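Researcher: Here's a chain I'd like modeled. Treat it as a single chain, no partners, no ligands.
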Amino acid sequence: MLYQEVFKKEIDSLNTLTNNKDKMKLLNKIHSDIEDAYSKEKVNEKHYYLLKEKVSNYGNSHSTNS
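Model: Modeled as a single isolated chain. Structure tokens:
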């Protein structure tokens, strides 16, 4: 449960960044960290897909605002 909360906070922290390049860099890092956590069974399948969806939605909604 702890990892899910950490990732949610990291995703939400993207809103504090003003530079789109920095946002995309952190977004890619978060995505990679989620993949790694899932492969090490630190997050379950349900949370993995929810977190991936949240990252994807954030990226999609902010990629056009560059």
